[in-house]
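Saturday, quiet lab. Running sequence design on the structure tokens for the scaffold JK sent over.
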């Protein structure tokens, strides 16, 4: 009649019955479409052992199959980046860039062309206004190579005994004087020819400055600061501020020294002037300095060369100037038949130094 209920096994855990809210019946998933056709359920992979009981299952991407590249993590971002790169190389962008490069090429070649420029720097003694009939008290042979950049200076003793074209043997500083005496304005050309014949260096350009003009240039700068590593020219070691008159006396000082110290003083002053001009505090004075410079200097250096030389100087810097002097070891002092104290050159040593500077 009535079946006897089965006794539960005490060794088996009991499962709690699911409670159904009062007044409702258990919901069954709707597996029919609006047209009455059954909807197939997607096949889901079995839950992994570590999946939480009753939790939502989040499928993980399957590992890439061998032989197929892994899908991009951000495909949309990659596509935008590729499209941007393609837009950068459109013909409309490339043609203006090529045109700009073509226009800049002559400028770059002009500024950095590996063409050496040799310049003869001449400092003449005090003369009457309107006259250049004087000996060249300072002779410096300079060379500029913008590409490296390289700035080389060679100071030549004014008492060096050389052959002067058209005048025979004499001190090198008399070449300028003799030529100016015969034909005003020909002094630099005569000195350039003397340099070419004795040193084998062609210097087509010159810059000639009067000593009084040098003083005016220094005063226009508001003086010059110079640092001495050792006592010289009556100044102790250290930093000194010199006005135009004192700066001129410094480069011409030879009371307790000789012409070799004087040449070293001249090159030291050139570097000091250069360093002072690079000081921003001196820049408001540049117009006055330029005015004093062009009033005191005459030159045949064309204007188109000034930017190349100026850029080379800026790139080399004051400490990048390679300065040399014809030292006393390269000469032999002697007294001429007229009783003049001069220096006989030792040409093998001098020419070796010249090749080092002007074939650099």
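Result came back. Writing it out in full:
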């Amino acid at each position: 009649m009535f079946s006897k209920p089965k006794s539960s096994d005490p060794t088996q855990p009991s499962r709690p019955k699911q409670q159904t809210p009062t007044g409702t019946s258990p919901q069954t998933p709707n597996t029919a479409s609006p047209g009455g056709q059954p909807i197939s359920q997607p096949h889901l992979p079995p839950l992994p052992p570590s999946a939480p009981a009753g939790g939502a299952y989040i499928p993980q991407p399957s590992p890439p199959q061998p032989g197929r590249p892994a899908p991009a993590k951000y495909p949309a971002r990659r596509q935008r980046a590729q499209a941007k790169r393609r837009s950068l190389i459109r013909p409309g962008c490339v043609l203006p860039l090529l045109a700009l490069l073509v226009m800049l090429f002559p400028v770059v070649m002009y500024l950095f062309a590996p063409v050496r420029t040799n310049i003869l720097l001449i400092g003449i003694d005090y003369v009457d206004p309107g006259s250049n009939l004087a000996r060249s008290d300072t002779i410096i042979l300079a060379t500029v190579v913008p590409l490296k950049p390289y700035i080389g200076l060679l100071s030549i003793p004014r008492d060096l005994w050389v052959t002067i074209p058209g005048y025979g043997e004499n001190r090198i500083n008399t070449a300028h004087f003799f030529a100016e005496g015969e034909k005003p304005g020909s002094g630099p050309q005569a000195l350039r020819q003397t340099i070419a014949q004795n040193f084998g260096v062609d210097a087509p350009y010159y810059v000639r400055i009067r000593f009084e003009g040098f003083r005016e240039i220094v005063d226009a700068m508001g003086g010059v600061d110079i640092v001495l590593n050792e006592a010289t020219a009556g100044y102790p070691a250290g930093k000194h501020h010199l006005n135009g008159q004192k700066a001129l006396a410094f480069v011409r000082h030879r009371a307790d020294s000789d012409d070799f110290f004087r040449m070293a003083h001249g090159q030291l002053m050139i570097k000091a002037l250069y360093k002072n001009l690079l000081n921003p505090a001196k820049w408001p004075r540049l117009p006055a300095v330029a005015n004093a410079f062009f009033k005191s200097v005459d030159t045949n250096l064309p204007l188109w060369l000034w930017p190349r030389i100026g850029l080379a100087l800026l790139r080399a810097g004051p400490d990048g100037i390679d300065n040399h002097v014809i030292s006393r070891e390269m000469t032999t002092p002697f007294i001429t038949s007229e009783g003049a104290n001069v220096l006989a050159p030792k040409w093998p040593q001098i020419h070796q130094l010249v090749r080092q500077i002007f074939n650099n």
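Notes for JK: The chain is about 35% helix and 20% strand. The domain at 117-358 is CATH 3.40.630.190 (Aminopeptidase). Ask whether to fix the surface positions before the next round.
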